[in-house]
Structure formats: C-alpha cells, structure tokens
Amino acid sequence: MIPRRRFLQAATAATVAAGLPATAARAATPAEGTLTDLGPASVASPLGNAEFVGGVLYAGSRGLSPNVVGAYDLAEDSVTAHFDIPTGIGVWAMCKVGTDVYVGTHAKSDLYKLDTVAGSVTKVASFPDHFIWTLASSPDGKVYLGTSEPGKVKEYDPATGATRDLGEAVPGEAYVRAIQADDTHVYAGVGANAHLIAIDRATGERRDLLPSELADRDWVSSMDVSGTHIAGGMNSLAELVILNKADPSDHRVVKATAPGEKYIVSVLIHDGHVYFAGRPTGTFYRCRLDTGDLEVLGVPYFEAATHRILAHEGRVYGVQDNAVFVYDPATGALDYRNLVQRGFRAAAEEPMSVHSDGERVYVGGKSGADIHDLATGAVTRLSIPGEPKTMLTVGGTTYLGVYTQAALYSHRAGDTEARLLARTGNQQDRPRDLAYDDRTGVLVMPTQPEPGHMNGALSFYSPRTGEYVTQRPAVERQTVYSVVTRSGIAYLGTLTQEGLGLPPVTSTARLAAYDLSARALLWQAEPVPDARHISALALGPRHVYGMASTGVVFEFDPRARRVTRTLRVGAKGGDLFVVGRVAYCGDGDKVYKIDLVTFTAKAIVTGLAGQWFGGEPKLALDPSRRALYGVKDRNLVRIAISGNR
C-alpha cells in the first residue's frame, strides 16, 4: 500500500465522548442520518486510450469527473497539459486525423475534437448509443466509431461535420469492440459472438472475414490493419488471427502462451511484426507477420491491462492503467513510466464497492482499493490488478472479489499487498457478492459469466484448508447477484442477465435456497414481479428480507416459501441490512430506515447523488451497527444510525 493523501476526519466528538459519563456520551452521539464527510472515496488515474501527435502522447482517462486528456511530452518526460472532457464517464476510444485527436466517451456517447495546435477541445457529435468503444481514422481523414448496444458502425466526416450510421455490423450482436479503416473498407470486430466484418465504405456491402473454424469464438475485441494484413485479438482463448487482406483464406492463428491467458486486449502491426498484449497476465508478445513465430517480450506490469499499443520513432508504447511501457526493438529494453509521477491528474473516481471492518473502510475502484483509517484519517492505496467488486472481513482477514477472472484475494490490515487466493475459471469474470457461513466454514462468492456465456457460478473457499471449489450453474440460466447464509443454508438472489451481450432467457429474478453441505439447490421462488435482479438480501430472526431492482423490499418466509409483505422503498435496488427490528437500505440518493414490525419506511438521508460506477449503489454496515458508509457525490460518508432506538 502506498500512502497517497491525508485528510482530517471529524472524530473529535467520539474521542471526547469516550472519557465522559454515559449520559454525556449518549448526548454526544450524532443523530440518526448525520453525515460525516471522509473525503474522496477512491482516488485514481486510470487510462483508457492514447494517441501520438509528434512527440506528445495524448492519453485519455476513465471514471474521473471530468475526464481529461493529458499531454505527455516525451522530450520533457512530463505531462505538460490537461484538456477536460466534460461529458461521459470515461474515454475508451481515441484516434487522430492530422494533428487533431478525436476522443469518444461512453454513457453518454459524445465525440470530441482536440486541436493539439490551438489547444482547444470541441464537441463535434453526439450519439444515442450507450458506449463508443473504439475509434479509427481512414487515410482520407474520416473517423469511424464502433458502438454498443447494439453493435453499430458510425462515420463522422471532419470536413463537413456530417455523421452517417452504417448500421449494425452483425444484426443482433451487441458490441463493436474493435474498428479499423483503410481506403476502401471499414473493419469491425464484433462480440459477444465473434465476427470480423469488412464493410465497403462506398456501397455498404458486408463480408465476414473470420475463418469458419473460429466461428465459435466470443469476440474480436482488438484489431489493427496494415496495407496487406488484418490482425485481430480474440477472447476467450487468447488467440490472435492474422489474415491476408487480398485473400482472407490465407490466415494463421497464434495463441498466447502465458499460463491462464484469456484475452488479447490490444494489437499493433509494425515493422513486419504483430505486437499484442494479453490479459490477465499482462504479458507483452510479438509474432512475425510472415511466419507467425511468437516471442514473449516481457511483463511490463504484472496483470495490468494494456489498452492501446502504438509505435513512435522506432519504439513501441503500451498504454496501461496509469502508465505507459516502452519497448525498444533494437535493444530489447522494456521501460515503465508511471504518468501520475510525471504529472497526470489523479482525481476521485466512481467507486465500485465499499466495506468496513470497524477500524477502516475499503473502497474498491479501478486497479485496487483506497483504505481509509477511521482513527487517523489516513488513506492508503491497496494496488490490485483488477477491480474489487465485493468485500467481506472474516476473522481479521478481508476478502475481495475482483474483476476480471472472478478472482478472490485476501488482505490483512497493515500488509502492503493483497494475496491472490484463486481464480474461478469456468468462464466467470465478475464477482457479485460475498458471504461466510459459520456452520460449514466456507466463504461463498457468486459470479457472473464472461460476455456471451451462459450460467453464473457459486464458488466456495475454505479459509481453514485453502480449498476452492466452483459449481456452475447454481441457478440455471441465471447469475447469482446477492447471497446471505445461515446454519449451512445460502439464500441466493439472482440476476436475469448472464454474460453481457447474451439476451436473458428469463424475465424475473429469483430467490433460491441452497444447501452448502450437499451443494444442492433446495427451492426457488420469484418474490417480485418483473425484477431484473435481487440487489441485496438480509436475514431476520424468522424471515429473509430482500431488495429488488425495482426498489421494492420484500419479506419472505422460508418455511412457508412465500412472500409475506412487500414495500416500495427506493427508486432502484441497493444494499440492505437488518439491525434488530429495523432495516436500512439505499438507492444511491437516499438512505431509508424500515420498521420491520409495521413494515413502513422513512428516508433518514436524502440528496446523496452517489456516483457509483455502473449506477449500482452500495452501502456498508459498520460492525458496531451504529453507522453505514456510502458516498455523497464521490466522497466517502459515514451515516449515523440508531438501530432500534
């Protein structure tokens, strides 16, 4: 963990109260709903893409507010300027036309022109699509966009300002994740079912160039073209396909060799070679364009994602989360340059998860978690190659479920690093929740499958033995989204979405009971009509309580296997905690207290406007049961609660 910043925590009242008589201490207890601002929840500087103009690398950020393009001057070895990108939650896509850099955002999807000569940024187009994933320019200066959902190809003409919709690359497919263009064609890499589509720029005629033996692959998710060849990175077998443009039947498939490699995340054709990067290992490869002979060039940073590979003045540059690596083909030297240390702006990101062990609060984000010490206010960074989506503390050890690869890590307070315990495999990539069962002694982690794949899984980890076992599916054609346990039984709340890009086959989320000893499903029910997911579950003495994506809280009798009461509470689903005879839940903007006797609710906090990544609001319950933790805008806040008082 690397100390990054300090701020004062308003803990004086608690310190003073500890030395006062009980009546005075009670008087000093903050009223229910009182907020204490603990500063930025998670500070980061993740990059999404970059482009060279002259000797300056223009790198775009993800998840900041606003996002920025930082100008990294190679000669000065420093970031000399920042350019705000005022809309969207991140920059995945960049390309250049002359000295202009085009920047594509997502959610919402806007296209910006950065005039690197004038130093100005102008929004030139807006699109209704959810994401602009990828941009490429043609030799004659047009800009092509790959979008989702559905996966479309768009054209922007800088000369006229006109846009043209070239339609879905493959009808019914959700994503165009890679795009390139030459004088005559636009090439689109498609998922969740892999296609490599060539679109005639003049006529719109389409041709699928992907060899038939690769038709069962998931994605063509990265790509580059030269005058003679196309190279595409495929998921989830970590394969690179190289095709002759004049005769696509003349092709070869090169498989990345690092153990556990699954994705080819970026590709560059340069000087007779194809350079490419793998994930999750972070390995950097190249193969000869003519023979396919493969070399492993190194691992610039273990398990880091390489978002773009570029060539400049004889060297090859890879853009990673907050850094670039530099490879010199002449010498084989591999250099690593942290752009934050060179002046790239770090700022509060949209957090992904929050958890308290009572002495500190973990806030998960991109490439790790910020750990807030509640006694001192100090904040340290726990670096992890991925995104902590869910966390839980058991017996002094905090467990973190990390995207991608549905990895499980552990961390003990004071350790500088987290420990990788297992990867789930089984085509799983996104942890959804964590729970621990005292009777069986296992940690339960549900996961969502990789894009385009069916059936989520449940994984079971024994802290005592280190055994890690996965069962897939747990609930057929569902992803388990939330889990609680009691006395050897796990209660599961599901999500109708399986892998992203795969249309759901069920319309309503389920509540299920699962026997942790027999590893068998006991029963299923649909507690809330038309709910897409059960966002959280909690246990009362006799009932299971849940919150649905619709904002409805339900009470379920597991013995009778029926819903006994429902109550519409929030605008959408969030976390839910039972504290004695009351419960607390949130929808990202409000925190509600529910009287479980009368089954009525009131808002104790309003106006949080929490900026959670992906719009999935979170809350954490302090083990003292006297506080919740959430975010207001992008700041971590402590929320006083009183339980039954």
TrEMBL record:
PROSITE patterns: TAT. Residues 1-27 form the signal peptide. Gene3D superfamilies: YVTN repeat-like/Quinoprotein amine dehydrogenase. The keyword Cell division does not apply. Keywords: Signal. This is Twin-arginine translocation signal domain-containing protein. It comes from Nonomuraea diastatica. The keyword Cell division does not apply. The lineage of its organism: Bacteria, Bacillati, Actinomycetota, Actinomycetes, Streptosporangiales. Transmembrane segments: none annotated.
